[in-house]
Design brief:
The complex is a heterodimer of chains A (113) and B (113). Chain A is built from no helices and 11 strands. Chain B is mainly beta. Helix content of chain B is 0%, strand content 53%. Chain B has no helices and 11 strands. Chain B is globular. Classes of the chains: A mainly beta (113), B mainly beta (113). Chains A and B meet through strand 4, strand 5, strand 9 and strand 10 of A and strand 5, strand 9 and strand 10 of B.
Chain lengths: 113, 113
Amino acid sequence: KQEVTQIPAALSVPEGENLVLNCSFTDSAIYNLQWFRQDPGKGLTSLLLIQSSQREQTSGRLNASLDKSSGRSTLYIAASQPGDSATYLCAGVSRRSQGNLIFGKGTKLSVKP
Amino acid sequence: KAGVTQTPRYLIKTRGQQVTLSCSPISGHRSVSWYQQTPGQGLQFLFEYFSETQRNKGNFPGRFSGRQFSNSRSEMNVSTLELGDSALYLCASSPRTGSDEQFFGPGTRLTVL
């Protein structure tokens, strides 16, 4: 069974700091990995999608990488801002998940001004 | 392009009742997936529909069902509601399959009393 683990569960940083969120998965046959952001009581906003042929994706201050051999993905946020405060979720797709997303429990990020 | 919409946004029901939730995908998207989010279990996959056919189903009891219409809009139904069904129900759409990038709606918050 595919499992996705996110560490840390919660993180508090001062504004301006660069930070890394970690995601690990048990199924090395993962072929897509997607990072989302969720604000309290809201739906999920897609941040980055790394497809099977890719190793990383960048969007603005965000960079996500995928290392299938080690079963890990990282989300790097540069120059964090209070508006980045949210829960960040990673989700993987593999043949075992039959093409559907398996989610981690998320990392709750708080950026202090 | 309009995003994924879900109605209603909030629902309060009592045990034993049934409920129907609706999801309209992004225009042109043919795959609709449903997820349940609870504090304890996180996000769990319910089912996926493509071209009016259920393509995958998660590990939920038969009280949870869904359907998709020819315009790709989807509904999910929960019968004989239980207290444990209280959750945020999220719908996601993607162009073809669940392994494409998925875009989520704002969710329907269901409270069962």
